[in-house]
Every structure is written in structure tokens, then in C-alpha cells.
Write a structure and sequence with these properties.
Blueprint lengths: L9 H4 L7 E5 L2 E7 L5 E2 L6 H16 L18 H9 L4 H16 L23 H18 L7 H12 L9 H7 L25 H31 L10 H28 L2 E3 L5 E3 H17 L1 H18 L5 H10 L4 H13 L1
Helix pairs in contact: 2-9, 4-6, 4-11, 5-9, 6-9, 8-9, 8-10, 10-11, 11-12
Bound molecules: fe (ii) ion (2 copies).
Length: 362
């Protein structure tokens, strides 16, 4: 559905579309629900989704520039891959997968930190009008809707608890048997790492003259957009093995839950792309009054985020997964051969072989 409405109240952007049945998974009341036809409906999309379409159409009509696009294939497939996940579960080492689902849920919860951004009056940063744009609605419902989707709101669970529910369905409430805090520590999350506090910002990149708050907003939106797009690899991966009833419990219910989460992410990608595109194609105004090409400011932010996303950030994730795999294989008498089998079916066998050599020497 498209609409020419481009101005929305916060209440509208947070409003649910009509549903006839709520989503309850593993006994947990989740956000979203089902329409008359039984199709899943994402939360807070009654106005937000048509709004994104309308803002994009308006931007293309006014600026004759396309909305940002970056293909999923920019990023490699999930690590571990599906075959590696199956191998671990069938070898009696499901814990790294339980850990991974816990880690994904935890990271999703951190996504709610986007609410800490305070856009204020965004017009002062741009020469061209921002009336009727996503940028103008970031602090008027869009960041809040995103935060609620990730961390939940009032009685309804969001993605954080939906991933935990998927884990508990697939592995039949494993948390009673596993020290989850210890697991998160090993995977790189200390007691309070990343959760709840103001957003950590990387060092400044843009001219001093550009408002640091604008840089913080554009920077975090870019980094979150890249995480959101990459996550589609993770959804496909998780849905594949979670739907295999010979592998995990729940008759595919956990996989369905992941497919609903995946559906909810589409408006996140949509509004982030739209807002960043609107900023890219405008003229930025420094505090001295000096003007800057948005395209140049955007490019600096984008390139650094992409470098990190494909480089250091990815290495950290892989290492966290591998730490957990090694930890749990180490508890098994035949752990070495399970680990060897795990590396042998990796997507990047050269790196895996190097890693094996390192493990052998340890
Ligand atoms: Fe999410
Ligand atoms: Fe998201």
C-alpha cells in the first residue's frame, strides 16, 4: 500500500496494524500477530510502513537520486554455517548454538539503544527543507518504534525475548542447565557491556564544524543499518536448522518465530536507508554556517562503517563463536575430533586449517 501522507504523529508511527490473533510462542506473548488470513503482521506498522514508502517516493521525486542500496552478498554467510551447526548438534554439542541464539537475542536487545539518540531539531543541520521526511520523524516515533521492536514494550516481548523463546523451544528450556552469564562473558559480553547505557561512539570523523550529535546519529544509523542487513544471513541460517525436526524440538515453531522476527526487520532497514539517503542528498550546515556536501559527509561515515563491518567487527564475532565451540568441545572425550570435523566443513577452509594448527600447538 502506498500513501501520499508524509507527516505522522508519534502515536501514529507507534500504532499497530489490525490483527485478529496475537503471537504467542513458547508461552511468551510476543509483539505482532496474525491477520484474517493467518499472515503474520509486524508490530507498529500501521503508518510506519506506508510512511517509509511515501518518504522514499517523495525523495526520489524531489532529488532524482536513488535510495541507498547495498546487497546482502556484500557480507559472507553466517559463521558457523548450517552444516557446522548440524554437526555440533548431532555430535552432542548443542551448547554453542544455544549460546549463539542467546547472543543474537542479547545483541537485539542492545539495538534498543538507538532510542538514546536525541535528534532534536534536525532542520538546523540542513539547507534544504526536511519537512515530510524520515529524518524529521527520527525522534518523533521512528527510533522509539525500532527500540520497542528490539527490546519489547510493556507486556509484549520483542526480538530479544523472541530469540530466547526460539532457543527455549528448540532446546527445551536449556537455560536451567547452562550458566548463561558465563556463556555471554566468554562470547565477549561482560556484565554490563553494551546494555542499557548511552550509545558508545567511535572517534570523530567529520569536520569539527559539523555538530557532533548529527555525526553520532548518522554514524549509528549507518552501523545499525549494516547490522540489520547482515542479519538476513543469520535469519536464513537459523530458520534452516531450526526447522529440522530431526535436529531440534518444537516441530519448526522456533524457525517460524525467527521468520516473524525477520519480517519485523524490514521496516528497520527501510527507515534507516531512507533517513540516510535524505541526509546524503542534502547540504549540511556547520556551526560556523559553512556548507558541506552531504554526499561527502555520508561517504566518510559509510566507508568507515563498512570497513569495520567487513573487518574488525566480523573477526570479533567469529572469534566469539569459535571460543564457545572450543570451550564445549573441550568438555567431551572426543572433543578434538568433533572440532576437527567442525573446521573441515567451514566455508573458509584456509582460515580453518590455520586455526587447527594453532589449536594443535596450544
Ligand atoms: Fe531485531
Ligand atoms: Fe532490527
Amino acid at each position: 500500500m502506498t500513501t501520499s501522507q508524509v507527516e505522522f504523529t508519534e502515536t501514529e508511527l507507534l500504532a499497530d496494524a489490525d490483527i485478529t490473533e496475537p503471537l504467542i510462542a513458547g508461552g511468551v506473548r510476543c509483539h505482532g500477530g496474525f491477520d484474517d488470513e493467518g499472515d503474520y503482521v509486524s508490530p507498529r506498522t500501521k503508518y510506519r510502513v506506508p510512511g517509509i514508502v511515501a518518504w522514499q517516493e517523495k525523495h526520489v521525486a524531489e532529488f532524482s537520486k536513488p535510495v541507498i542500496d547495498i546487497p546482502l552478498e556484500t557480507w559472507p554467510e553466517n559463521y558457523p554455517n548450517v552444516a557446522q551447526a548440524e554437526h555440533l548438534i548431532r555430535s552432542g554439542v548443542p551448547e554453542p548454538l544455544i549460546g549463539t541464539l542467546t547472543r543474537i537475542g542479547t545483541v537485539e536487545g542492545f539495538g534498543a539503544n538507538i532510542r538514546f539518540l536525541q535528534p532534536g531539531n534536525m532542520q538546523k543541520h540542513f539547507e534544504e527543507s526536511i519537512q515530510g521526511t524520515a529524518v524529521d520523524h527520527l525522534g518523533k516515533g521512528l527510533f522509539e518504534a525500532h527500540g520497542r521492536d528490539e527490546a519489547g514494550w510493556e507486556k509484549e516481548a520483542g526480538h530479544k525475548d523472541m530469540w530466547f523463546a526460539a532457543r527455549d523451544i528448540a532446546f527445551e528450556n536449556p537455560t536451567a542447565k547452562i550458566d548463561i552469564d558465563g556463556m555471554l562473558q566468554r562470547m565477549g559480553f561482560g556484565q554490563n557491556a553494551g546494555g542499557g547505557g548511552p550509545v558508545q561512539m567511535p572517534p570523530r570523523l567529520l569536520p569539527d564544524d559539523i555538530d557532533p550529535n548529527l555525526e553520532a546519529i548518522a554514524g549509528l544509523m549507518t552501523r545499525v543499518l549494516m547490522i540489520e542487513i547482515q542479519a538476513f544471513h543469520t535469519f536464513k541460517w537459523a530458520e534452516k536448522w531450526l526447522s529440522d525436526s530431526t535436529l531440534v524440538a518444537g516441530d519448526g515453531e522456533a524457525a517460524k518465530l525467527v521468520s516473524y522476527i525477520r519480517g519485523d526487520e524490514t521496516p528497520h532497514v527501510g527507515y534507516l536507508k531512507t533517513g540516510l539517503t535524505e541526509m546524503r542528498d542534502r547540504t549540511w550546515i556547520g556551526s560556523s554556517g559553512k556548507k558541506y556536501k552531504g554526499e561527502e559527509m555520508f561517504r566518510l561515515i559509510w566507508d568507515r562503517a563498512l570497513d569495520n563491518s567487513l573487518g574488525a567487527g566480523r573477526d570479533l564475532n567469529r572469534q566469539a563463536v569459535l571460543n564457545e565451540v572450543e570451550h564445549w568441545c573441550g568438555q567431551k572425550a572426543n572433543g578434538d575430533s568433533i572440532l576437527e570435523g567442525f573446521h573441515a566443513i567451514a566455508d573458509e577452509p584456509v582460515a580453518a586449517a590455520d586455526r587447527l594448527a594453532a589449536v594443535d600447538q596450544a
